[in-house]
Amino acid sequence: MKKRVSYKKIVAVLIAAVWLLTGCTEAVETIYATGTDKEDKEEDRSGQDVDKEESGQKKEMLSLESVEAVPEGEWQTEAVFPDRRGKVDDTLALNSIAGFDGYSGQGKMYISVSDNVESFDLFINDRKADTSGINPGGVYELDFSDAAKNGRNTVMVSSIEPLDMTEAVKINIPYPEVREGTPEEAGIRQEALDAVSDIISSDIEHGFTSAQLAVIRNGILVYENSWGKVNSYSPEGERITDSKDVTNDTLYDLASVTKMFSVNYSLQKLVTDGKIDLDSKVIIFLVNERDREF
Asked: Which of 52, 71, 147, 152 could disulfide-pair with 127, CB 3.0 to 4.6 Å?
């Protein structure tokens, strides 16, 4: 007996193929998962219906909590649906998806619903949020810690009703935070950290002034330590042993190190904007260029 192929599965596969051909693979997994996650049924060889999920258990939907307003803050992603990319066709995959960085086990976003919105679907990676209780004009907080993964994540907003709405749903996603944890939790061997500590300690003993080290993996601070003295040498070059110890909160004067960042990044920005040519001679920027605008 031939298996029935659902319409949604065909659409999901076609969208994924287009994304792969165009080099936009950011949310292929999300598109496929959300397009085939609604209890599609298919017949087995005996002619009986079997659920697509072998485990027979559906993942619990993410819950939205009503809040008074979106809090003040800096956002790594601000997206408006259905016309996120300025297009008018809400069937385009790019119009329904936005990407953001995150870490497994943490994450929240704020959802602002415009007036007259009746319903919409929202997915974080392969997890659906329960939007059945949303109210027009409402603002909601969504904790998606259980759905977050390390690296690139996707949010998908689709099936917005009424269909002719623009700027119907706005998403604000803050930056992920670093939390304290253990090396084992982050998949790092304690022996490796001990070896690094021994190397730095040896350098301090043989004349290096001081050092700080923090090891962060996938948003988890797994190691933090400090070595040496705040002031290790006198102006004459003599070793000072009674100076304060360096701590994890000691601030260093970066001095000329800032040139690598301020000048380099500023120059890259000007080159990107087409305002500076790297092949130009330096003299054209130094002579009679006081009024030059960048």
From this structure: 147
